[in-house]
């Protein structure tokens, strides 16, 4: 197989990236991998977790290790779209001539941290989401292209809902993954405290640059997808859609809206990168099964009964994924 030759070098490069990040970020391997998967799959990631779990530090560290431009936007109710995308200003030259010039906003970076995205008004949220979707920013009649790679990592705090504007379902669907940032384990927390006491900033090496990332991104597309694996991804998405012939019984009972077709595309895209990161030349059902919760949890909308019965996207997906996996195993047998 000729196409698997570039894998070992690229995989070891990605392992290096993870170990460099590990010098700063303790634990949280699922979060680090999820953000890397989204970067290599060319998508965006939504992180949900209480403040102080290192979300900001993660992206800043990633920018240093990958030698990418980084910017942070703190979302607040008075943030305007122009504060994100930029605005046109009047400039006076040395000779006194005046001209309009576009001043790019913080969205013109490779890695953009949208902190507490649910605090800004829908108008401002949609300015960022348009840039995420189109990879362009329009100012007046001029369209400016955003440089690749372009990753938005948005964070939201699940606790304070006072004065927030939850992201509408259609906009949530723009995120490739939604990752839940958990509290650190006891050992990890001890390590974090020890590092705080040591007070020494870790020396970070630059492991990759923009061109390497883009070439690894292209290589990820070489990962083969067998028909039965693609079929598994499609079945998984269809079993979340209530009222259809393929719906899981729990979907009919608890889900108001299931995953859109984008969910199936995302399963395959993220699955390929996950397989690549683990040195596999083929996408497997296990790869998709591993990443499915992060890809689908924000794409299913629960109904009132689900809330009344203490069901969450996590509990439902666990059952739906298990059922789809055993069905796929039976079909292959």
Descriptive account of the structure:
The chain has 333 residues and is an alpha/beta fold. The chain has two domains: 25-81 and 109-202, P-loop containing nucleotide triphosphate hydrolases (Rossmann fold), CATH 3.40.50; 223-332, Orthogonal Bundle (Helicase, Ruva Protein, domain 3). 48% of the residues lie in helices and 15% in strands. It has 14 helices and eleven strands. The strands form four sheets. Strands 2-5-8-1-9 form a five-stranded parallel β-sheet. Strands 3-4 form a two-stranded antiparallel sheet. It has a two-stranded antiparallel ribbon with strand order 6-7. A hairpin with a 5-residue loop joins β3 and β4 (98-104). α9 (227-238) crosses α11. The longest helix has 20 residues, at 313-332. The relative contact order is 0.15.
């Amino acid at each position: 197989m000729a196409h698997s030759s570039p894998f070992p070098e690229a995989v070891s490069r990605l392992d290096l990236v993870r170990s460099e990040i590990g010098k700063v970020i303790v634990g949280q391997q699922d979060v680090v991998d999820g953000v890397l998967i989204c970067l290599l799959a060319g998508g965006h990631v939504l992180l949900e977790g209480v403040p102080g779990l290192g979300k900001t530090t993660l992206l800043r560290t990633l920018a240093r290790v990958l030698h990418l431009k980084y910017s942070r936007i703190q979302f607040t109710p008075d943030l305007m779209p122009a504060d994100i995308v930029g605005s046109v200003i009047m400039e006076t030259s040395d000779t006194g001539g005046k001209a309009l010039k576009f001043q790019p906003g913080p969205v013109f970076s490779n890695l953009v941290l949208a902190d507490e995205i649910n605090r800004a008004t829908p108008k401002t949220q949609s300015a960022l989401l348009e840039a995420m979707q189109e990879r362009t920013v329009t100012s007046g009649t001029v369209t400016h292209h955003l440089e690749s790679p372009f990753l938005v990592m948005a964070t939201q705090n699940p606790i304070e809902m006072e004065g927030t504007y939850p992201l509408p379902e259609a906009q949530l669907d723009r995120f490739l993954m939604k990752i839940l940032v958990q509290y650190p384990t006891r050992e990890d927390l001890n390590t974090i405290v020890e590092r705080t006491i040591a007070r020494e900033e870790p020396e970070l090496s630059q492991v990759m640059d923009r061109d390497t990332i883009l070439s690894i991104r292209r290589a990820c597309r070489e990962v083969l997808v067998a028909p039965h694996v693609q079929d598994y991804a499609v079945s998984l998405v269809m079993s979340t859609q209530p009222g259809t012939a393929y719906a899981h019984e729990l979907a009919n009972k608890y889900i108001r809206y299931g995953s859109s077709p984008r969910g199936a595309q995302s399963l395959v895209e993220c699955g390929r990168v996950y397989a690549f990161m683990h040195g596999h030349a083929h996408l497997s059902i296990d790869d998709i099964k591993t990443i499915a919760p992060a890809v689908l949890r924000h794409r299913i909308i629960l109904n009132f009964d689900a809330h009344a019965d203490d069901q969450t996207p996590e509990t439902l997906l666990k059952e739906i994924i298990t059922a789809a996996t055993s069905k796929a195993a039976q079909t292959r047998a």
